[in-house]
């Protein structure tokens, strides 16, 4: 019973850390896709300015002129109209859009998050797998225990 509880806890840890790592992978994918020229080209009217860039503060809010959707943008000022490209994988309630390669490149900081969260996810996942396999019976050879 103790092994089952340990395996379940390790599996939960793998899922939690893995979800964080996958979020980071999505940010990296979006930034790379933008820099490669992918994403829907839109014109955005900025309603609320962003503050201090992506590392601190909050994103600016804008409305896509073509269809009225709300998007989040960084390094923008209220009242201006900018050309942007939306991300391919949406994370959160509002779509994010990039206006310049510099704003997309800032998402590469997630490389560290993927490593910091992905490594424990792999360790917990491997531990859950090992714990779920069980122990061989005493006195049996490894060939008998795997059959």
Structural account:
The chain is of the alpha+beta class and 147 residues long. The protein has a single domain, classed as OB fold (Dihydrolipoamide Acetyltransferase, E2P). The longest helix is centred in the first third of the chain and has 34 residues. The mean pLDDT is 89.
What would a concise description of this structure say?
This protein is an alpha+beta fold. 46% of the residues lie in helices and 18% in strands. The protein has a single domain, classed as Nucleic acid-binding proteins (OB fold (Dihydrolipoamide Acetyltransferase, E2P)).
Low-confidence residue ranges: none
What's the structural domain tally? 1
What Rg do the Cα atoms give?
22 Å
Structural class assignment: alpha+beta
The number of E-state strands comes to 5
CATH superfamily, by name, is Nucleic acid-binding proteins
């Amino acid at each position: 019973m103790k092994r089952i509880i340990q395996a379940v806890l390790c599996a939960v840890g793998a899922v939690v850390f893995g979800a964080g790592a996958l979020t980071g992978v999505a940010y990296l994918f979006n930034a790379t896709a933008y820099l490669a020229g992918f994403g829907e080209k839109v014109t955005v009217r900025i309603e609320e300015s962003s503050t201090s860039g992506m590392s601190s503060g909050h994103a600016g809010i804008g409305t896509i002129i073509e269809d009225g959707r709300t998007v989040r943008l960084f390094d923008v000022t209220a009242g201006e109209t900018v050309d942007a490209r939306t991300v391919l994988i949406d994370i959160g309630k509002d779509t994010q859009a990039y206006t310049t390669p510099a704003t997309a490149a800032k998402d590469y900081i997630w490389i560290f998050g993927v490593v910091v969260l992905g490594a424990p996810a792999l360790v917990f996942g491997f531990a859950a797998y090992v714990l779920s396999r069980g122990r061989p019976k005493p006195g049996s050879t490894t060939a008998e225990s795997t059959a």
